[in-house]
Every structure is written in structure tokens, then in C-alpha cells.
Amino acid sequence: MSQPFRNNTFYRSSIWPDLTITNTDEHVLVRTVDPMTVFSNALWQGGLTHASHFVNWKVPLDYRCADPVELMRTQISAWGYPVGRTVGLQTAAKLTHTSIQEEAGDKYRLICCVTAGTGNASRSGKARTTFPAYACGTINTFVLIDASMTTSAMINAIITATEAKAAALQDLGVTDEDGEIATGTTTDAVVLASSQNKRYGDPHQFAGAATTIGNAIGRLVYQAVHEAVATQEEG
């Protein structure tokens, strides 16, 4: 089990000491010393950006807001985090059940942090009731990598992480409202951040399941999603 917030509020990576993760009960903060290159579908600062602070804010199950983006900006500012260097997600999942996995390997150090609830599990590729937009993420996956990566490798890494999430849900037997195996939930978010550290030399060109870095991403995301989902009903 790799859920440090069951008994503690602070976690420092053993392989990447400059990276810390804190649970304030209201949100989880992943923090790095230097800004990282980030791709994400985050509510705040989504898309391509640079960030050193990564927030996963717990909101109520019945959360509703006319302008969630502005509310997120206001809240990040109130916490004292740099608004322009913070990526922000929202979740209704238990922060105490955050799963953290880490590994060092072939020109990389890798941290994966996941919160997960599956109350709105869904299966991609089928017709279903749809809505114009969502505000909150339910399976929120943060993958932070100390490595040098091409832009295409970072996008490849997001694909690998998403496939690993779907595999974990499949093995857990999580189903959608029609009883079919789920591939995710209706409100998932993923944050992929790379340090672009030049000390590693040539960048990773790919991050698929057969590459050293991609295989690690897949395994760690699978383990984190599996643990976070499997324990979500525990106290």
C-alpha cells in the first residue's frame, strides 16, 4: 500500500527529494523546486504551460459553480500559491486515499499521484447521455517526470497513462451504468509534467508501453489507479 495520507499529511519523494506532496485536508499539493513543462486537461492552467505547483482540490459531491475556473483561480491565490505557475484540478474523491508510486530508471525519475472515485464510471466508444461540460475530475492522475522528453513523447506518455488507467479499471471489474466494463469516468483529468532536465542528455523520443520510460509510466499509473479505486470505500 502506498497511501501515506492515511496516517500523515506530508510526503517527500525518496528518489526525488526536491518533490514534496502535502495533504491539507482541503487539497493535495504536489510541489517541485523548479517549474516543469506541463500538458494537461486541468481546470486551471490546462493545455501546455509551465508549473511548479499542482493542486488537487476536494469539492463536495453536490458541487455546483457558475464559474469554476474563476473560483479555482481565487482559491489558489487565497492559498498563497503562484497563480501563473499552478495547475489546478478538482475532485470529490477521498484525499486520504491518494496513491503515490515512484521509480527511478533509464534517464528518468518518475512520480505518479492518483485520487479516484468511480461513482460516475463510464465506457468510451458507446452512445450515452451527454452534457455540455463538467467541472470536476473524478480519477485525477498526476505524472511528474524528471527527464528530457520531446513534445511527442509527452503526448505519447498521456496515451500510455490513459491506457493503464483503463486496464486497472478492467481488472477491478468497474462497470458503467449499463454494466459494461468502464474505461474511466465522465470527469477524468491527467497532468503530465516533465522537468526537461538537460543532464540526461538526448531526450526520450517515445513513451509507449515498450519503452523503458513508457513501461514505467504504465506500471505506476496502473498501480496507483488500482490502489486508489480498490480502497475508495475503506475508512
Automatic annotation (TrEMBL):
Keywords, ordered alphabetically: Hydrolase
GO molecular-function terms, A-Z: hydrolase activity
Source organism, top-level taxon: Bacteria
Listed PANTHER family: ADENOSYLCOBINAMIDE AMIDOHYDROLASE
Protein name: Adenosylcobinamide amidohydrolase
Natural source organism: Aneurinibacillus soli
